[in-house]
Amino acid sequence: MLRRVEALTGSQNVHRVWGGTFHRIANLILRRHAVSLGFNANYSILDSEDAKDFINVCIDDAAVDTRAKRFPKAEVLQDIISYATNTDLPIENVIAGKYPYFEMLTAQIKRVDAIYHARKLERNVMDYDDLLLKLKQLLTEKREITELYTEQFQHILVDEYQDTNRLQAEIIDLLAAKHRNVMVVGDDAQSIFAWRGAEFTNIYEFPKRYPEAELFKLETNYRSTPEILGLANTSIASNRRQFPKMLKAVKRSRDVKPALVPCSDVDQQSAFVASRILELRDEGISLEDIAVLYRSHYHSIELQLELSRRNIPYRVRSGVRFFEQAHIKDIVSYLRVLVNPRDELAWKRILKLLPGIGNITADRVFESIATRISGTEILPGSSQGQTGPLTTVTALKNATQVSKTGRKGLEDLGSLLEMLVSNEFRDQPSKQITYVFENGYEQYLLENFENADARSEDIRGLAQFSQRYETTEAFLSELALLATERFKEPQPLVGEEVVEGGDEDELLTLTSVHQAKGLEWKAVFIIWAAEGKFPSPRSLKEIESEEEERRLWYVALTRAKDELYLTYPLLMTDYNRQTVLQKPSRFISECPPELFEIWDLEEELPARDAMPSIKDLPTEYLN
Questions:
Q1: Which of 150, 343, 549, 588 is placed for a possible disulfide with 535 were both Cys, Cβ 3.0 to 4.6 Å?
Q2: What is the CB neighbour count within 10 angstroms for residue 79?
Q3: Which carries the bigger pLDDT value, residue 341 or residue 114?
Q4: How far is CA 80 from CA 83, 99, 128, 489, in A?
């Protein structure tokens, strides 16, 4: 960046300009003045893995009985401490607001946090967040040092200001206290990271903190067509808290409005998207210039299967492929042992989820299971001849050389499996997945993953998806055959692999909207644009979150350069296998119908016979 400044200005004094991320600037200052805070100048910076290991040591020092209390794992504690640091909030407030299921452990968590900070000082180390926290402490407590830098920095420029957190904004205000020459660049309409600590009011209330500031609007848009921008402008206008602006297109109109595509059901939605992508490819648009966006990762389940069936190569920017995520593989492993009690990998995976069970104990327990299985047990009444783990339940409950904690876990697992093969749950993968989730696995997610809510949402989506299969075996076979058909021989699905039939250099992009920020494609599909899906019901639990969801929608719309397709299924099946009518997202309904071109897929992609015609549905479900 500084080299570009030098090239543009021709100045030889660029070395006098400080440039870099917040953390880099903080590190430069702290290296000079760390002694003032009790650190030496040669302090070490802990990376994420080192910090996690450090927290584990502090948990031991705090004498917390993690097994008895079901204490959160180091990764989760790390996220709690980091969020508290970056939002400048007390630990107890963060726990109450974001992790209420750990409220009874607040005192122990605060004790671990105190030990963590004290030990870092003793060992002369800082973690990534400390760089900002200690810089603020330095500027707040050491007046002579603050005066040095407030005099030195006559002008301060900040990019992507809408994504700054409270701590970063406070540091800028402290450094600018004397000259007050601050220029921030950002788009309030693209502030979409509150969930990780970004503070929308930093940019929205900037004119209040700096009343002498001038506002310059950059409204010329070089990316999108007038039709796409017309929809984006109208949509974001519904937000109350914003700097009003009207994007104007440099591109000429292509006389193509954003397409609103109601589909009979999720299968038709996937079929339409895949078919239209192939048509665009035939029209000369590279797969690299096409993207499918969604609000939540589980929304891509059916589409990933459809793309794989059609040999359309794709990458997933929002993470690994859906069925290769750890939490999905965990849940599927429970079902695998129902169908095949000899499945060693599945058994060991679910055994190691239990408290008190490690690799050695899992090996020992599986050997006990294997020796007890003398023949395949057929469940009475199973139409598919599905096998069950009834013999293995006895092995679980009678396993030897297991700790007291581990034994309790094995007994609970045995009871769980007995329930899953009962008449109430047998051959109903959706009910089985839901039961596993609600009877232990949800708690496991809360204690082990900082993004437990998103992972829980994925599992609920998996349960809903599995309703289309008549048996558990049929559901698992579909997942296994998917890999076999793609590679001609059984191989696991791995994120970023290329399916057969495409050039490795040409891949369709599947991504969440959050991951798509800053990117652009010629053609963009936004799937599951339905009320209850986008906006996310989970996100709407918080105050002001509807406006952030609308900003996220605005980001999605403005990723498209030439063509934009908004799709949603009119009918879906809920957890009770009941057919439910779906309305389009409120972000669609609040815009005039003339901004869209509504496509009718009835003739080209007929829905299943059981589904009514789109034309038979009430008009409120179309607009």
A1: 549
A2: 18
A3: 114
A4: 5, 8, 14, 44
User: How much is the pLDDT for 363?
Assistant: 83
- 279 residue type, one letter: E
Which letter, b or e, does each residue of 85-120 get, where b requires 16 or more Cβ atoms within 10 Å of its Cβ? bbbbbebeebbeebbeebeebeebbebbbebbbeeb
Comparing 419 with 496, which gets the higher pLDDT?
419
Interior angle at CA 408, CA 438 and CA 337, nearest 5: 60
Beta strands in 245-295 (DSSP E): 248-249, 259-263, 290-294
Ramachandran area for residue 422 (φ above 0: left; ψ -120 to 50: alpha; else beta): beta
First to last CA, the chain: 47
Angle at 78 between CA 333 and CA 324, to 5 degrees: 25
Q: Looking at the DSSP assignment, which residues form a beta bridge with residue 569?
A: 263
- Alpha-carbon distance values, 217 to 188, 331, 519, 557 (Å): 11, 49, 21, 20
296-318: b (≥16 Cβ within 10 Å) or e: bbbbbbbbbbbbbbeebbbbbbb
176: helix, coil or strand? coil
Q: Is the pLDDT of residue 133 over 50?
A: yes
Residues written for the chain: 623
Burial of 137 (0-12, 13-18, 19+ CB in 10 A): middle
Query: What pLDDT does 398 receive?
Result: 64
Rounded Cα–Cα distance for residues 75 and 352 (Å):
18
Which amino acid makes up residue 563? E
Weakest-pLDDT range from 316-330, 342-356, 498-512, 561-575: 498-512
Spatial distance between the Cα atoms of 484 and 493, rounded to a whole number of angstroms: 10
pLDDT by residue (tens digit) across 494-521? 333 333 344 456 899 999 999 999 899 9
Query: What sign for the dihedral angle of Cα 582, 584, 585, 586?
Result: negative
173/578: higher pLDDT? 173
Q: Mean per-residue pLDDT for 530-534?
A: 92
User: For residue 260, with 0-12 CB atoms within 10 Å meaning exposed, 13-18 middle and 19 or more buried, which class applies?
Assistant: buried
The span from the CA of 126 to the CA of 39, in Å, is 9
Q: Can you tell me which residue has the tokens 């991951």?
A: 515
CA–CA distance, 78 with 84 (Å, rounded to integer)? 10
Other CB atoms within a 10 A radius of the CB of residue 240 amount to 6
